[in-house]
Amino acid sequence: MYSSSSSSSYGLPVARARSVSSPSDHPDTEPKDLEASLNHLIHLHTHNSLILRHHSEKAKKEAIRKAERVSELLVDAVNGGVQDSFTNQKRIEFEIRTLANTITRFMKQTDQWLAATHALNTAVKEIGDFENWMKVMEYDCKSITAAIQNIHQE
User: Which residues contact 14 (CB under 8 A, 6 or more apart)?
Assistant: First the structure.
């Protein structure tokens, strides 16, 4: 006969042999005791199989849950990098728009400075032309004055 009083390293009951007597020790051993022992062994086997199946299912569910967690962490790690890249891209696009606006403003200011410089150059040229005209007029006036003095002296 077997006893299920001890357990294995998995916490499962293990069948241990009790003192099994030979048929010569007990001539009155009946086939019913043998049948009951076999039924008991089948019952223990079924029970141990169910416990093993339960532990296997529990371990399988635990492994699936941990695999899902690892998967989530990996996705978060990858998405974190993607999100950082997306944020950097948005910042760069903002800076590009800001620089484009600054460039446009500087171009307008440069055009204004060019127009003012051109106007100043034109005024300086006109002053130079006027000065030259004045010199010509002065020369002409001296020539006329000299001619009048020459006529007057004669």
Answer: 4, 6, 7, 8
pLDDT on residue 77: 83
What sections of the chain are H helices per DSSP? 31-153
Report the chain's mean pLDDT, rounded to a whole number.
83
- Residues forming a β-bridge with 6: 14
Among the listed residues 67, 24, 68, 16, the one whose alpha carbon sits nearest the alpha carbon of residue 40: 16
Q: Kindly tell me if the per-residue pLDDT of 13 is higher than 60.
A: no
What sign results for the dihedral spanned by CA atoms 137, 143, 147, 148?
positive
> What token pair was written down for 84?
């950082």
pLDDT digits (tens, 9 = 90+) for 77-95: 888 778 888 899 999 999 9
Please list, in sequence order, all residues whose beta carbon lies within 8 angstroms of the beta carbon of residue 11, skipping any fewer than 6 positions away. Answer: none
Q: What is the rounded CA–CA span in Å between residue 151 and residue 142?
A: 14
Q: Is the pTM of this model over 0.85?
A: no
CA 88 → CA 39, 74, 81, 82, 123, distances in Å? 73, 21, 10, 10, 52
Rounded mean pLDDT of 67-79?
89
